[in-house]
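Sequence only, no structure available. Ideas?
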Amino acid sequence: MRKNRKVFAWFLVAVMLTMILLTGCGGQPAETDDDGEGEAASGEVIKIGAILPLTGPAAATGVKLKYAIETAEEIINGEFPEMSMELAKSKGLPNLNGAKVEFVFADHQANPEVAKSEAERLIQNEKVVGLIGAYHSSATKPASQIAERFGVPFVCGSSSSAALTERGLKWFTRIAPHDGMETELFFEYLKFLNEKYDAGIKKVAVVYIDNEYGVHAYQMVNEIIEDYKDDGFELVADIKYPADVSNVDTEAQK
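Reply:
I predicted one. Tokens follow.
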């Protein structure tokens, strides 16, 4: 439940950041043309693509992310002066004369190839000006490569593979911690428990899913534990399980 809430929050932030990046929705007034008109006519709709796992093994999370995005859309398009959020204070996008935002959803089904084709469809057919997604690192990777090819901004809300921001892409950014950061904090916490409460935690095992996210997360643990060997930590097992498995009790019992 806590993880779902965290991911929900990250996607809400991702939506807001996407709009700021795409439209410059800060405190400055909209730019005008020679006739004094803003860049976008009032009533114009700015379309953003959202690629999520709405079906498949992660559908429950994908649907919650969709709720987060729909909440952000309501905040942006409505008027909520009591909220301490820049885009909540007035209706629509202030730097685009109150233009509304519309999110166009696509279901990648936890399939990287589907994520890739859906990204291209959203850009080519739906004419979105930005993309957010895609929860699974394995789906975010090909989808963001399509965005890069078309010069369309892609804001990653929760995919945690550190490799995503090591590709040198111009149009890709992330807002959540990656696996390397999370793994280091994990060992720091175990170290704290040992020092503060004499927890005696020394042996570490990694049970990971066989996809972009899981494999890279395991690699991060394998690398970062080297920095904590003087603290007595030891990697005693690494167990990989298929991406389509919903119960890992057997793997955990090993």
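The mean pLDDT is 85.
Hope that gets you unstuck.
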